[in-house]
Amino acid sequence: MSPVCLSVQVPVAPAILVAYLSDPHNLPEWATEFCLAIETVDDHHRVTTPAGPVALTIVSHADSGVVDMVTRAEDAPEETLYTRVLPRPDGDSEWLVTVCPSPDAPADLLAQQQAALNREMHTVQQLFAEAQMQCCVE
Predict the structure, then answer these.
(1) Torsion-angle region of 22 (φ positive above 0: left; ψ -120 to 50: alpha; else: beta)
(2) CB 33 within 8 A of CB 50
């Protein structure tokens, strides 16, 4: 399977978006189809997903806009969601996500996951748009 790339413009400075995405405790707010709950014990994050629990590590680098999310379910290989936050000329962010599916992943499951991820990315876009609107109203 070929990698799948998604992107969305988010109306916030890249540094703010990287900080938001890098905090695993924000997942329940925006990754609602992936993250049903999150627990952190001794800096180890465990996410309850519809498919069961996974360990989560977020690897981020603010200067380069990297926010990679590495998950591992019990008795399964590690999976990484590669994301980049790029600066746009207007000061907003372009959030890029690349999914590299395993060769044996069922096409219908990949389509469902891609649609869910697209909805979650637009949730982030909407959260920051609403925050920007509230800021302007106050």
Answers:
(1) alpha
(2) yes
DSSP string, 65-112: TEEEEEEEETTS--EEEEEEEEE-TTS-EEEEEEE---TT--HHHHHH
Of 9, 4, 32, residue with least CA distance to 93: 9
pLDDT in tens, 31-87: 999 999 999 988 899 999 998 999 999 999 999 999 999 999 988 888 899 999 999
Domains, the chain, with CATH or none? 4-137 (3.30.530.20)
For residue 24, the 8-state DSSP code is G
| Residue 64: strand, helix, or coil | coil
- Tell me the whole-structure pTM to 2 decimals: 0.90
